[in-house]
Every structure is written in C-alpha cells, then in structure tokens.
Design goal:
Layout: E1 3-4, E2 12-13, H1 14-17, E3 59-60, E4 70-75, E5 82-84, H2 100-110, H3 139-144, H4 148-158, H5 160-170, H6 195-206, H7 217-224, E6 249-259, E7 262-273, E8 276-286, H8 295-306
Helix pairs in contact: 2-4
Length: 315
C-alpha cells in the first residue's frame, strides 16, 4: 500500500508507521556506523558553536500531510518553506549519513577525492548486516551504499582544520568538528544539525550559493541522483514506493543512527521538475532503536506523494 493520510480518506496507515519495528531489529544495511570505541572526550576549541539561525516562519502543510517527526519542503523559487510534523524542526541531532552530502563536496574540493569513480581498497573488516560495505568502493558507490568506512578515511585525510573551515563557510549546523575526526558526525559526535539547517544548506547547494566548493557542485549533484525505488529496502514490507513522473529527477540521502535510547532517521534531497525545483527534509526521532525500516524515509516519500511533488503537480 501507499503511505497516505487517514485524514484525507485516500490513504491508510500513516500515523501508525512511526511505530514500525517496535521490537529490536537488525541495523539497516547501509546506514549506522561500524562498532567502535566511544568517542574521546571533546575539548572545545575556538569560539563557542553558533546557535541555530532563525528560519522564516513556515507555511503549515495541508491537514492531509501527517508526519510523526519534522517535514520541510521548499520551492527554490520561493523563500518560505512548507512545514508539517509533530516534532520541532529547529531541534539539532546528529546528521548521521546525511552528512555525506557536505562531506563529499569537501573531499572533492580539497582534492582528497580527485576522481569520483576511483576505488579505495576495503581493508577486510567485516560488517554484520552491511555486506555491501565489504568490497572496494568509489565515492559514487560509497554515497549510494552509505559506506561509513570510506568517509572515515576521507575525513582523516581532510583533517580537522580544513573540515572546520568548510563547515563554518557552509554554516552547517553547529559547525563543530571535535575528535575523533572520523566519527564527529555520528552518534556521540560533536556535529549537530536541525532540519531547518539541513534545508538551508540544500537550498544553497541547489541555488549555486555555497561560498566554497562551487566548481565541484555539479559533480556532487550528479552523484546524489537515484530513483525513489532505490529506498524500497528501508520501507515496511507492506508499503509501496510511490510513483514518480518520468520527467522528474529525484536526488536524496538517508541517515540512521542512535539517539539516546532510541533512534533518529533522515531523508533529505531535491526534486527537479520541468518547471521548478524543490528541496525537502524529513526527520523522525523515535523511541525505537535503529532498525531496517526508516520512518523518515517512509513518511518523507508519503508526504512528497501526497503533495504531488513526485508527480510534478503540486503543491
């Protein structure tokens, strides 16, 4: 079935989805970080991390859009986002694997990755439930399969100082890069970002307004393109991927990690239609541990479908 709102009378099961996988389940195959020692105590350096920048007052979504977390949608020709959801959109959490978007741009712009098709050697480490990580990977495949070990390596090569400079230039979340350098964007790390800040970064990325890395932005955008059907494995078994207009180009990145005793899931991205472009953010904070299914992905795709974004007809 398609995830749709019981309020509209046309969709069923959306409100209950936020509680999918109430029992512990294996971690998603392409998201959470590999087991490692807890991060070392971070010692703040430099100026205090900035507070979130106030965002323009959002436009409430139609009542048919039911989302258990935060959902934001912005037409790039407009300045005010549409907002829906039961959780605050200004609350910061770990970005998890959605950080691979700015991270990949930094790796390309610094030359740490010169060719997005060049493969790096897998060191033989085994990753339970993450078999797609157990091979050599290029930047392209590491983004698609969300391969954490690949980005741990590029983070070490970029280094804390350069990483910090870029995040401050991008105004990405709290811009904090504390040790260990290869885990700061994961659970327990120093980097935190809100859905509002994710949306602002994506808008700058697709409006050609980033102050650094602009020459590499076309490459990054191309690496992020993938069909919604590629996220089918993150949806509950009885939920179908919504259809997309053949003229639309869909780009997205998921993220999953622990959040206290529960989890945080993300789906962030861009939809290009013949007559307009939109960026979106879906995040769900749950009491359930990380699992195969992603509430943010399921509810984010459902909202994009309900609003007509995937059909290039609305909102």
């Amino acid at each position: 079935m398609l995830l749709q709102s019981p309020r509209s009378g046309r969709f069923a099961g959306l409100l209950g989805l936020g509680l999918v996988a109430c029992a512990p389940s294996p971690p998603p195959p392409n998201e959470t970080e590999p087991p490692a020692a807890a991060p070392a105590d971070a010692t703040p350096s430099g100026a205090p991390a900035p507070e979130p920048t106030p965002a323009p007052a959002p436009t409430p979504a139609p009542p048919s859009i039911v989302h258990p977390g935060c959902f934001l949608l912005l037409d790039l020709a407009e300045s005010t986002p549409l907002e829906a959801g039961e959780q605050p959109c200004d609350e910061r959490t770990t970005p998890a694997s959605t950080f691979k978007i700015p991270h990949a741009l930094i790796a390309l712009d610094t030359g740490v990755v010169g060719d997005p098709e060049a493969e790096r050697k897998w060191d033989g480490t085994r990753y339970p439930h993450m078999g797609t990580w157990e091979r050599d990977h290029s930047l392209r495949s590491a983004i698609y399969e969300s391969v954490v070990w690949f980005f741990m390596g590029t983070a070490r090569e970029i280094g804390r100082e350069r990483m910090q400079e870029y995040l401050r230039a991008f105004d990405y979340g709290n811009t904090s890069v504390e040790e260990p350098i290869d885990r700061f964007w994961l659970e327990g790390g120093s980097l935190k970002v809100s859905p509002q800040e994710q949306l602002r970064f994506l808008a700058a990325l697709y409006r050609d307004q980033l102050p650094r890395g602009q020459s590499k932005v076309p490459t990054l955008r191309e690496l992020l393109v993938r069909p919604p059907s590629s996220f089918e494995g993150r949806l509950p078994d009885d939920v179908q991927v919504p259809p997309i207009d053949p003229a639309a180009t869909f780009s997205a990145k998921t993220g999953t990690d622990g959040h206290g005793e529960g989890s945080v899931t993300w789906l962030v991205g861009h939809v290009a239609c013949p007559d307009r472009q939109l960026v979106f953010v879906s995040r769900v904070i749950s009491d359930d541990p990380p699992g195969r299914t992603s509430p943010a992905t399921a509810h984010g795709l459902a909202a994009l479908h309900e609003l007509g974004v995937l059909r290039c007809t609305g909102p």
